[in-house]
Amino acid sequence: MAARRTRANIETVHAALRADLLGGVHAPESKLKFAALCEKYGASVSVIREALSRLAEQGLVEAEPRVGFRVRAVSVEDLRELTAARIEIETLALRRAIEGGGVDWESELIAAHHRLERAPLLTQDEPPRVSDDWEAAHGRFHAALLDGCNNSWLLGITCMLRDASEFYRRWSQLHEPDRDVTAEHRAILEAVLDRDADTAAERLSSHYRHTSDIVERALRPPQVAEPN
User: Fold this and answer.
1) Which end of the chain is more exposed for a tag (fewer CB within 10 A), N or C?
2) Sign of the CA dihedral running 27, 30, 34, 39
3) In b/e form, how buried is each residue of 91-121, taking b as 16+ CB within 10 angstroms?
């Protein structure tokens, strides 16, 4: 019974820590101190350590020998590699989903897209930011795209890559007024429902490259004008 309670506690703390990392509560490269985490999440050191070890496997935190854990770093080079890997893996999973996904998968995908289109993109804050409701619906839509894939290992890798990408997106919190992201999602959905794997893969790849380009610009230091 005690082991079962501990396991449930690990799952709860892992989920809470993951949500906070993706939500921007812990800044990139900041140290994750056990005492503060134990107090914040109401858990023992062993539970916090296990949760952090899982998050390290998922690429959201980094383990430092004899030091502890810190939030993952961000860089242009890492973003480019991450985007390339995500495109390679997700387009493969998407092709498998299109090949093997049935009517139930299509129905769930259409429902996820409907929720995404109805979710408010921006908050009423000043300055406005991408809303949590839209972020949640967006993540669910991209997960639903691949749910028809029948390879659990492949889907597990896509989840890890999606979390790492979400970490970048959350920290950038960028929105380009001229970008029609709604049209991009709709175009991906249409190609998938048409069972056009080549077009769907290309549209998904273009969607990710576009987002990566936006985040990359945010990561670059501002250019200082040279004196005349």
Assistant:
1) C
2) negative
3) bbbbebbbeebeeebbebbeebbebbeebeb
Q: Round to whole Å and give the CA distance between 153 and 164.
A: 17
Average pLDDT value for residue range 117-142: 84
- Tell me the three state secondary structure of residue 224: coil
Single pTM value for the model: 0.78
Containing 61, the helix (H) or strand (E) segment is: strand 61-64
CA–CA dist 52, 123 (Å, integer): 31
C-alpha to C-alpha distances, 86 to 8, 110, 115, nearest whole angstrom: 31, 23, 24
The yes-or-no verdict on residue 175 having pLDDT over 80 is no
Distance, CA of 190 to CA of 199 (rounded, Å): 10
Residues of the chain with CATH 1.20.120.530: 76-219
2-71 CATH, one of 3.30.70.100, 3.30.230.10, 3.40.50.300, 1.10.10.10: 1.10.10.10
Task: CATH 1.10.10.10 in the chain: give the residue spans.
Answer: 2-71
What are the backbone dihedrals phi and psi of residue 145, each rounded to the nearest 5 degrees, phi first? -55, -35
Of residues 33, 42, 36, the one with CA closest to residue 13: 42
Is a pLDDT exceeding 70 seen at residue 8?
A: no
Fold of 76-219: Four Helix Bundle (Hemerythrin (Met), subunit A) (1.20.120)
End-to-end CA distance of the chain: 73
Q: How confident is the model at residue 218 (pLDDT cuts 50, 70, 90)?
A: confident
Which residue has better confidence, 193 or 26? 193
Residue 201 tokens read as 């893969």
